[in-house]
Amino acid sequence: MSEHTDSTALYPAADVAAWRAAGYWNDDTFATFLREAAARFGDNEAVVGHDLHGVNHRLSYRELSTAADATARRLRALGITRGDFVVVQLPNTTEFLPTIFALFHLGARPVFALPAHRAAELRHFLASTNAAAWIAPGSHNGFDYRDLAREVLPALPNPVQVIIAGPDPAEFASLGGDPVADLPAPAPVAPEELAFLQVSGGSTGIPKLIPRTHADYLYSVRESARICQLSTATRMLVVLPVSHNFTMSSPGVLGVLWAGGTVILTEDPTPTSVFHLIDAEKVTMTAAVPPLAMTWLALRPRIDAHLDTLEVLQVGGAKFPAEAARKVTPVLGCRLQQVFGMAEGLVNYTRADDPEDVVTGTQGRPISPADEILILDDEGHPVPEGESGHLLTRGPYTIRSYFNGADPGAFTDDGFYRTGDIVRRLPTGHLIVEGRDKDHINRGGEKISAEEVENHLIAHPDIIDAALVAIPDDYLGERSCAWIISDTPPTATEIREFLTRRGLAAYKLPDRFEFESSFPLTGVGKISRKALRRRLAATLTTDTSKDD
């Protein structure tokens, strides 16, 4: 079991005491979250969506709680117990919520993988947590997770039980088997204990795991629900991956369930599907990353669907261009709320009473009075108000270290998290995101570590060296370009096939390739990414995917 078991490892005791005294932290835990919601909201509709068998469900709070209890009995019969890490890799189907609440009931700790993660990421998640189990679909959207398990399991240092949700478990255990065991009482977890692990894009070549406690995360959920004005009348359409931090807690599915609203799950983000679901399900809010939101805006005039019930479109995950932000209300007829946050903690929202120019031109302000914000220059000195600098933050729901102490340089000695974002702050406290200071690429809200992709590229036998840089893109915000040094250059198709075989997620595959005999260097001998970006800008054409 990890050293990170409670707040004594994750947060200073004096800060915990202060946050409790201020009412930010309380005794709520995820072990009893759903049962308490069922007691409050009973027959209210909790979740609507399809399961992995393709069957549509409408579950009340009481029925969702019953489904979670049945799943908990099944998992307990399979040997899952308090303290176990369990990697959960499920799509936007109705199995997701009963599964995670079943794990919370047992005191187990979900590790929230995304459906797009592949062998490279899964090996890391399973090995670094010494996970007891991995829950995934059998085959979904053309990808066979059973084959992924067969590839990953032999390379792990310890055995991992694979549990298949949905049909055709093959040689693996089935999540849908008979729940033969008696249901134990909810695990007696403390609010300050580690509740689960989320995944960061990371800058060190492998994803980092983010430890969140019951107390810190539930504070963020409650405050987000309040700021976003959620109620029993809220009907939230979930289009982005449900296990993503934005979708889970900003205010996300957890905020909606805390407030007694309805979660409507879909896996189809296309405008036709989304607009017809908004019409049919009387959706009041939904959330998108900027490229998706811009697609919805562009195609809205062509789709015959009523959006009268839609009150709020949240946009986050990457900076939303102000020109697009100004179109939301006239085109969709709803209010825009910008969201800027990170799985490590800090969350910012524009508010319902913010002036229009603030809503369209900023990424919001922090949710908590206790959120501390530093904006520093390259030498670590505070910048004058209104000037751009590196964003550092500390507060009652922002982590002080990664799981197992990974990447200690991401934190200052006094506990501030170096976010990697370049921002400037208005006198109102609202932040405007200007870019990134690390070798990260934000491709439509998906964070890509340049070092991770470069390490895979250099493993190719015909590639001598590689550097990955961002390409500005009006649709995705950024795309990626791989600069390659090779005596016998492989084709772009061959490189992408090689990276796919190595288990790299599809969104991390380079969009463009450039081949060079040498790279420009900085004064200390490092690859100059700024020079590569300038060189790319000089040669870039309208083709953003230069292949063979």
TrEMBL record:
<dbReference type="InterPro" id="IPR045851">
    <property type="entry name" value="AMP-bd_C_sf"/>
</dbReference>
<dbReference type="Pfam" id="PF00501">
    <property type="entry name" value="AMP-binding"/>
</dbReference>
<dbReference type="InterPro" id="IPR025110">
    <property type="entry name" value="AMP-bd_C"/>
</dbReference>
<dbReference type="InterPro" id="IPR050237">
    <property type="entry name" value="ATP-dep_AMP-bd_enzyme"/>
</dbReference>
<feature type="domain" description="AMP-dependent synthetase/ligase">
    <location>
        <begin position="34"/>
        <end position="403"/>
    </location>
</feature>
<dbReference type="InterPro" id="IPR000873">
    <property type="entry name" value="AMP-dep_synth/lig_dom"/>
</dbReference>
<dbReference type="Pfam" id="PF13193">
    <property type="entry name" value="AMP-binding_C"/>
</dbReference>
<feature type="domain" description="AMP-binding enzyme C-terminal">
    <location>
        <begin position="452"/>
        <end position="526"/>
    </location>
</feature>
<protein>
    <submittedName>
        <fullName>AMP-binding protein</fullName>
    </submittedName>
</protein>
